[in-house]
Fold:
Amino acid sequence: MAKKPKTTIDEHGQTRDRRGEWRSGRPVYLEPLLNDPLNVKGIAKWLFGFPGFFAPWFAIYMLVIGISYAFFTPSLDRMGSLSADWILEIIARNVILLTLWNGVFHLWFYRWRKQGRQKKYNANWMSKNNPTFLFKDQVWDNMFWSYCGALFWSAYECGLWWAYANDWLPYIDFSSNPVWFCLAMALVPFWRNFHFYCIHRLIHWKPLYDRVHYLHHKNVNVGPWSGMAMHPVEHLLYFSCVLIHVVVPSHPLHMMFNAFQTGLGPAVSHSGFDEIVFGDEKSVRNDRYMHYLHHRYHNVNFGESNVPLDKWFGSLHDGSPESDLHFREVHKKRVQGQQVDAS
Structure:
């Protein structure tokens, strides 16, 4: 009997392994800001190129936040006292925004399948008739837990708005300190990713993993709604990144950027696709392979690409066959109870 081939070619000419996985051939991309030695030219290209730090995603978040702040956020004088009317407005705004944002990605990639499986890491579509998930449907399960997350997002945001309105938080605005105002906005993603790495390592501690984080990891083949499909305890920890504004001087726009990127970013990082493809020639690089590998292997890539903590602490899987071999050996040693060199 002939052996099953190790690889197949799909309808887009992509090479897939026997599990149906596709890899771009590029290693996991780490932003060059913290590289040693410092590469000034590479940093400039990353900051101002396309795709880069400021475009497209930073600019898109800024646009969403600006519109939300100007048109869909209650006035500060209303938020000086805790009142159901403005709190419900914040909740409704965040739920609608989450629905629109995640919905666009889900419709494009999974409902309408506008690019088929082109640049899709896992060949399979979202799971149906699967008792692992609520309602036996992965998408509906993920949506339920994501909307639970929107409540935690809103609760943190409302608490901070209330504190800003009562002058209880250290405050700056553009006119009083334009340099720090702009720098703080640019630093928010780095803080958020540092915080994410820390709490992510925490919830991979076995007692928390078995009771809390397991829920998120039911999603091996991820989709846009998978990103916020978390246990409520994980939501509580995940959105706590906004508490930095209790101690660091900031403007409500900084807090909104922090909260919105935390709430909306998972749809991008869990899209399951390497690129958003428009027609035959145009595409936007997504480069979320790093986090896809975390869902694939569980004990690698706990952080994100602009704060290289995985590289520093030996948990970076760069997608190469060499990394596959290394982490298989690490896993084997752990199972056997041997001392592991994570470098």
Summary: The first strand starts at residue 7 and ends at 9.
